[in-house]
Design a protein that fits this description.
Elements (H helix, E strand, L loop, with lengths): L7 H13 L7 H12 L4 H13 L7 H7 L1
Helix pairs in contact: 1-2, 2-3, 3-4
């Protein structure tokens, strides 16, 4: 509920849970959705995770140019 209310920490955690499949089935679409929302706040760890999605094609196509912008 906190992530849906805009809590940055909850948004970041929810992205990670879906990214790693912790407590929920791994879901790449939801992972990139929440990781992108978290990255918009500019925290380095979230930008790094968002870049990794582009590097490995998690929830998106592999795009090394976008990856380099994020990392």
């Amino acid at each position: 509920a906190a992530a849906y209310q805009g809590n940055h920490s909850a948004i970041s955690r929810l992205g990670s849970l879906h990214y790693y499949g912790i407590g929920t089935p791994l879901n790449e679409s939801l992972a990139i959705h929440w990781i992108e929302k978290a990255a918009r706040n500019g925290k380095a760890v979230d930008l790094f995770k968002f870049g990794k999605c582009f590097e490995y094609g998690i929830g998106t196509d592999i795009d090394l140019h976008k990856m380099n912008k994020m990392i």
